[in-house]
Amino acid sequence: MRPVIGIVASYDEERGVAACTRTYIDSIVEAGGKPILIPLMPDEAAQEMLSVVDGLLFPGGVDVDPMRYGERPHQALGRISPELDALEIPLAQKALAMNMPLLGICRGCQVVTVASGGTLVQDIPSQVGGAMKHSQSAPRWYGTHEAVLDEDSLVARLHGTRRLVVNSFHHQSIKSPGDGFTVTARALDGIAEAAEAKKGFRLLIQWHPECMWVKNRVFLAPFTALCKAAKGQSWE
Fold it and tell me: In the chain, where do the E strands start and end?
């Protein structure tokens, strides 16, 4: 039986619309899972969703409110969603406490980082000297810069390489990883591109593999590993 993977839906506060990009759903299905969307809802109801899912996927989206990690907003801070932060951060904290398998992508990487006590670079172009372009003007399936993966890291073992050409659609990144997490991949300019937990399957990646695996199957690996971990199987 396919494991149930909860995908947290994005939320447009102006239109009152909760949604999920189809590529995340397709990725979970292709990887062997059964996706279920977790829309904006009261905290208690959201926490109860964890009793009906086997793993969690935190997808991309808007910036995390810097007040959530004790900083004032930088001039270049992008759009934030207080209601989405209020859903995702406690949900991530509960999932971490339960040792539930989880995968964080782009904003999802940043949400789990903040939920576990880490901090973020609020704006790479203005805060990191010598940084390359991390918000590409190219098709979403196309990789535009290299990420160097730590030797024997989970992310390297899953992809079968220590150098990966990834796509890039972010202006924020991990500054200090959360408790129990270690940065295990960086771009050539030093920007953190992935982090992982020392125990269990908890993988955070800054690129968007859901947009890349149709062209290059290696990028399906994080989704396959999430589904295997959620099923109680070895994910490597």
Answer: 4-8, 10-12, 17-19, 34-38, 55-58, 102-105, 119-121, 145-149, 163-166, 173-176, 181-187, 192-197, 202-205
| N-terminal to C-terminal alpha carbon distance within the chain | 19
Residue 235: what pLDDT?
Answer: 85
Please check whether residue 53 lies inside any domain of the structure.
Answer: yes
Confirm whether 133 is domain-assigned.
Answer: yes
236 domain residue, yes or no: no
Which CATH number fits the domain that encloses residue 43? 3.40.50.880
From 127, 116, 109, 104, select the one nearest 190 (Cα to Cα). Answer: 127
Residue with tokens 């989880």: 102
Query: 153-185: buried (b, 16+ CB within 10 Å) or exposed (e) per residue?
Result: bbbbebbeeeebebbbbbbbbbbebbebbebbb
Mean pLDDT over each residue of the chain, to the nearest integer: 95
Q: Quick check: 230 and 5 in contact, CB under 8 A?
A: yes
Number of domain units in the chain: 1
Q: Which residues are catalytic?
A: 106, 208, 210
121 has which bridge partners? 173
pLDDT in tens, 26-35: 999 999 999 9
pLDDT at 11: 81
Q: Beta partners for 105?
A: 205
Q: What domain range includes position 134?
A: 4-230
DSSP at 63: B
Establish if 76 belongs to a structural domain: yes
